[in-house]
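Supplementary Note 3. Input sequence used for the single-chain structure prediction.
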Amino acid sequence: MTDMKEHPFELSVSEDDLRSLRRKLEGVRFPDELASAEWAYGVPLADIKRLVMHWRDYFSWSQHEAEINKLPMYTRDIDIDGFGTLNIHYVHQRSSVIDAVPLLFVHGCES
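The predicted structure, written as discrete structure tokens, is reproduced below.
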């Protein structure tokens, strides 16, 4: 039987996972880049190097995790015809405006 109740959710990334990510960022090997490729073959190498340096040296996961956890987040099971049960994660933020129009933001992918 599917549990259709809403359950509070809090993001929690383990220190082991963060250490693993740091090791990967410290050990990254960058490929050569084609001259004048710019965006024709993907993200320019200089941009990737800048992002890796930021994530490795400056990004504070614990600070961002605390900010994310200020949101009222939940999970719940829903039944999808022909697919089965899907556990969804969502933010349920009620408006402080009386008679506000409810908004639903959904993301996904096409196959």
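The chain has a mean pLDDT of 91. Residues 45-57 form the longest helix (13 residues).
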